[in-house]
Automatic annotation (TrEMBL), chains A, B, C, D:
Keywords: DNA-binding. SUPFAM superfamilies: Homeodomain-like. It comes from the Bacteria. This is HTH tetR-type domain-containing protein. Residues 39-58 bind DNA. The lineage of its organism: Bacteria, Pseudomonadati, Thermodesulfobacteriota, Desulfovibrionia, Desulfovibrionales. Residues 16-76 form the HTH tetR-type domain.
Length: 211, 211, 211, 211
DNA sequence: AATGAATGAGTATTCATTCAT
DNA sequence: TATGAATGAATACTCATTCAT
């Protein structure tokens, strides 16, 4: 049960605690001062361990960030799709689905906006992050396609893969810009427009109950 | 007539030429090796001037990048809206407009994808870039609103500001991800879906001639 | 019965085996990656014991090297003089003696040239090695003097101590440079010249049987 | 007029002075504390310049050492062979030549014994030094062969290349061990033995005037 | 006896920026 | 105007050694 970002695999309780303290310290410092602005010594210091210990648990500053972000993305992902699937089962309308997606996305992005900022920058800057985000995007598209497939008759679009991608793109850029830069105009108007655009595009009748 | 990025305002022809040589050298090097990966000495060397001269023309490495990117954005912007306005006058359909927008956006983004990459990263990393992009976004939204306003009857959306923003977001994220990461699925399918989504959303009849 | 290089003196068989495993692992790794390039953790790892155990048996990485090299030197020494004494008894000529010495020296140096390299460097770098080599040299000189003394009439030289030293020096530098750097010119010519120089110097008639 | 060890080629007097100060500081510190024991910051400090300046003039600590040692070797070399050639012209005996060689070698090695120590260690440790010494050895052998060739009739040896090598080896090891470790026995006896061995080997009549 | 987690001092090198010439 | 020599703070990572278990 080892992985890429871990050097020493902690077995004992005390070790696990140290590793967690390092992760927490790093999250706090990366959020405050950015990734480049934080160094291993500081992280170790804040976690109450030595630099050596830092390097015993993580090959790298980057390895630590990669772990933080991939965990974060996995958490968000799971939470969002769980709720969406429930809603499909409950017979919500297409527009309601889009609104829920927006609310969930909004919440998850506002959890740690500074980390989001870092991740968004890194994906343009570092190959490993580019790859990680690409994988995540593929997964997300596949899940959206899965959800859409279950909606049969009411679907307006036919090329589900392409539809999933453009809808995801519209969601993401809007969520990100709101979370990171703040909304240009009132959030509600923006989100309502986003729900409208995606619902009208995806569904024949956006206000009819799905399935 | 001084501005933020300039220290010395070149009056003589020889000065202007030096400044341009510095800008060209920087564009080439930033594209090749990234922003962090390029240093002032290299830029000066490639431009055939001394480091001292570099700092005579630009306060900073960042100032130079800021200038490069704002120029680039202004160029793209002008070109895109020029063509779009012409098309509105020529009585194209909504869908055709969206397709043209996509083609223009695609071309402009593929001109210097490495610089785009840098800009996209910097906007999440550096306050000055955040601001520059915010201003640009506001301008772009205003221009889109202007275009839409001219379409009167055929417009489906009512909150033009919000509509302009979400449509711009959908465009941008899609363009960027294609330009920087390459398309996940075939480009044509993706672009067609994007045109469909935005056209169906903005217009009552996406296939009727506007105006 | 303790000595400098040992912390714990192993009494049980299992302990002795561990100690030997550590020595073997170290010899292999020092040869491959040099002394500075090898660390205690690696040695312990290759020997299948923990770092703690390493430090239970050796005060130091250096202590281990010192032991390896002094063992090695002792082995070589014994083998060489054993054979030489046999030859004196068998009535060989002076030149034949020199040739045999060269062959024996050559073989012993080519056994572990990388360790030789390390030792040659350390003797100029580290006081303990300087001392160790000095002691070894004195021993060797004494033994050569012993051999020469037994040759009575045929000896050309009178200051046996000085003669032993310069002959040993000529042998050593030649052996070392061949073993470590490879011969500049053909080995046989070099070795024949060396045998000639030392035989002509030491003996009245280099080709008469000694004794 | 650039070379391997120099980054910035000093043209101005002040630059040249700085470079020299760095070389002097390094020689002093390497001698005192060894090569590994000295760092760039110290050298710069002792020379009264900044670390940055150090790296402007030398790519490396090693580059600096390489320069110091190759200069040193060139100086010694020139001085020794100059005098030897003069002596051949003056009709000295073979034995006198060997004695002079020893005196010259002794003096040059005692000039900076700590640097000698470092060089002797590095040649077993670092490829670049191995190479440098190999080149030097080839040169020296060639020069000795040149000298010997001029002695025609009185020469006892026929394979001049091999003879030059083994004689050089005997000289070197003896010089080095005296310079670095101090003589085991009285220096004069050792040197006399060395002169005797080499003279008797090289010449038919070691005490006849050459040429 | 044995383990291996933890320590933290130590070091080479870069580069944005300045300023004397 | 232009030069380029000089600065020195800043940073990631290693590894010999210890010691609680």
């Amino acid at each position: 049960m080892s992985n890429d970002t871990t050097v020493r695999v902690p077995q004992q309780a005390r070790s696990i605690e140290k590793r967690n303290r390092l992760v927490d310290a790093a999250m706090a410092l990366f959020g405050e001062k950015g990734f480049q602005g934080t160094n291993a010594k500081e992280i170790a210091g804040k976690a109450g361990v030595s630099v050596g210990t830092f390097y015993a648990y993580f090959t790298d500053k980057k390895a630590l960030l990669l772990e933080i972000l991939s965990r974060h993305m996995a958490d968000v992902d799971a939470a969002v799709f769980e709720e969406l699937r429930a809603m499909v089962r409950d017979g919500a309308t297409g527009r309601e689905m889009m609104r829920l997606t927006i609310r969930l996305g909004h919440d998850s992005h506002h959890h740690a906006p500074e980390l989001l900022r870092i991740m968004l920058a890194m994906r343009y800057t570092d190959e490993d992050f580019t790859r990680m985000v690409a994988v995540e995007n593929r997964d997300m598209t596949a899940k959206i396609v899965g959800l859409l497939s279950a909606m049969g008759d009411n679907l307006r679009v036919t090329d589900l893969d392409a539809a999933a991608r453009v809808v995801a793109n519209a969601f993401e850029e809007t969520m990100h810009s709101v979370a990171v830069f703040g909304p240009d105009i009132e959030q509600d108007r923006l989100y309502e427009a986003l729900a409208d655009m995606t619902a009208v595009y995806l569904f024949k009748d956006p206000d009819a109950p799905l399935k």
